[in-house]
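Input chain follows. Return structure tokens only.
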Amino acid sequence: MLLALLLSGCGHVRRRAGEVAYVSAPQAILRDHVATVYAKTGVVKNGERVEILERDRHFARVHTASGAEGWVEQRYLVTQQVFDGFQKLAQQEQNDPPQATGVTRNDTNLHLDPGRDTEHLYQLDQGAKVSLLKRATVEKNLPGAAPRPAMNTHALAPAVAPPMEDWWLIRDPQGHVGWVLSRLVDIDVPLEIAEYAEGQRIVASFVLDQVQDGDQKVPQYLELLTDPKDGMPFDYNQIRVFTWNVKRHRYETAYREHNLNGTLPVMVSQENFDKEGTLPVFVLRVKDDNGEVVERKYKLQTPIVHRVLGPGETPAQAAPRHKRSG
């Protein structure tokens, strides 16, 4: 008996009763032995739930819902706590209005928090279409440096700002919510609109309405833009409204506004204005000179954009008049 206890205590595996993990790799092979030569006993895929039976130094023996068992590298697994974190994040953001749609440039991980070294679980394929919800900026991890927590996107930058990078909170077609590096996602806007960016970065895009041109309907857009670099203390600093000229069959800039300290989200809807009828409306959230977030409402009466004044607001407080260009 004593010999048996000693042998069991010297074993290289540790049994885990009821421990659950989730696969963070696109897929991973299950093997029958932790050795250079092994037989394949199954395959697990991204997001799949497994039960851990025992662990080695770098491997874990798992049992899948389909009944397969085998050893898999532990670096391909995340804990129940990480999975629960993603579930909680999706629930918290389930009612957030998308600020744009985007397409991933390559395969990328979906992170629980903004930052390269944060926990990740789900993977997005190259070309995946996602909804963009929120922006955050974090200090870029330098070689050998410890990761730092996310910073307030709208806080004033220090005198000597460290290298920063932007991240987007996104929702994928399966309903998973998480953070991706912003430069890995291209905002999905028509080429005719993108050509008007003039070197600025489009960060959000909204269809305001559609106009009839012959036998087709053409969307009209609100675009949010910012300087073409990461780490800015605002989400956007200018807006443009593009309307469709049905005579010339082309987009034109109906309105633009600069020097905004804009914060997401932007709300787009329709509203009835009596004799004018039902018109597209959008509401911006911007910070004033005191750092307070105020809302500005605008209406599109094609091809003119008007500021809709709030209670007690005077025309002098309104935004600059609209501008059009061919």
